[in-house]
Amino acid sequence: MVNRVFLILGVAGAAASLAVHLGAWLGAVAGCDVTFLLFSGSLLVWWRAITSTAAAFQTRQPGMLWREMSARCPPWVRRAYTPITYYALGSWAYVTYVAMFQRVSPSAAVWARFYSVFTFFFYFFASAFLWAAINAIVPVQAGAGRTIRGEGP
After folding, report:
1. CA geometry: angle 92, 107, 81, nearest 5 deg
2. CA pair distance 49, 148, nearest whole angstrom
3. pTM to 2 decimals?
């Protein structure tokens, strides 16, 4: 039940971050308090997602957590991983370029776009992790093992 509440918060945070990001592209810059609230909320939801997913899957191999999590997400979520990651990295590279090589402070709109894309990134992936934790399949019998996407043994 608690994971579902955090999943709803994650989806709402992703929608709010996307709205702030699109608003920044259109010139309507959100205030620092909104950006701070979104960023703080994303860390809270991200923390809950990581702890819930680790408890649900109980894996010790580094790559297996991501594989098990993504196997339980809808296909459109798996297809969105790469573009969202590259867009977030591109935003980071642009802000770094402006700050370091042009030697000027990025404008408020650039910072708003930067922080909103990263909060969207955190909310989106936290929501995917929570979705996977909610839909985790626990072993029915001792020694039955865990199945992926409910195919069965």
Report:
1. 25
2. 19
3. 0.73
pLDDT score recorded for residue 15: 92
CA distance 119 to 131: 18
Burial 12-30 (b: 16+ CB within 10 A, else e): ebbebbbebbebbeeeebb
Comparing C-alpha atoms, which of 90, 126, 123, 119 is closest to residue 30? 119
How high is the pLDDT of residue 150? 43
Residue 55: count of CB within 10 angstroms of its CB: 10
Residue 108's φ and ψ, nearest 5 degrees, are -65, -35
pLDDT one-digit tens code per residue, 86-128: 888 888 888 888 878 877 777 777 788 888 888 888 898 888 8
